[in-house]
Amino acid sequence: MLTMKDIVREGNPVLREVAEEVSLPASAEDKKILQDMLDFVINSQDPELAEKYELRAGVGVAAPQIGISKRMFAVHVTDEQDQLYSMGLFNPRIVSHSIEETHLEGGEGCLSVDRDVPGLVPRYSRITVKGTTLEGEEVSLRLRGLVAIVFQHELDHLNGIMFYDRIEGFKDKLKKELPHLKG
Ligand code: SB7
Ligand code: NI
């Protein structure tokens, strides 16, 4: 069973790597890892289990966050219409997206970031994601709202991107704080 001990934190270079494609059909080992990730996310939202195992509630987790640089993530999140998206995906990719952007009003957080980072994270309002489920089925998902935001957050982890990299003014702020940095 995965717990917070398995979650790597910022500063660990694995979070900055571009993760490798998973070779399909997925091996029994990769399926087991992804199923464990999905169970972890589900458990983290169960108040009793979360307290018992000291889990921080999360709506998703990406493989690099458990130190595995492979393109897979698990989500367990309910949209604004009460539809539950509970799945593990191998090699997920955005095949199209809206021009329009959105953001979560309160900003975002991350299981790999043990601090509050204020600021709005711009995300596409709508995306179409393709990928292969734990069951080996190729799916195409049209997403919007919170679920679209969560999928983009997890996809970013597969490309070494942290949510705060996208906060408006992040680079300007960094330059002000660390003026010796170029670019
Ligand atoms: C806020 C939180 C998340 C996604 C989008 C908005 C996920 C938090 C858990 N994770 O760190 C998963 O990578
Ligand atoms: Ni995260």
UniProtKB/TrEMBL annotation:
NCBIfam families: pept_deformyl (TIGR00079). Removes the formyl group from the N-terminal Met of newly synthesized proteins. Requires at least a dipeptide for an efficient rate of reaction. N-terminal L-methionine is a prerequisite for activity but the enzyme has broad specificity at other positions. Binds 1 Fe(2+) ion. Fe cation binds at C110, H153, H157. Its cofactor is Fe(2+). It comes from the Bacteria. The active site is at E154. One of its GO terms (molecular function) is peptide deformylase activity. It comes from Halalkalibacter alkalisediminis. The keyword Metal-binding applies. CDD domains: Pep_deformylase. Belongs to the polypeptide deformylase family. Keywords: Hydrolase, Iron, Metal-binding, Protein biosynthesis. This is Peptide deformylase. Its EC number is 3.5.1.88. It catalyses: N-terminal N-formyl-L-methionyl-[peptide] + H2O = N-terminal L-methionyl-[peptide] + formate.
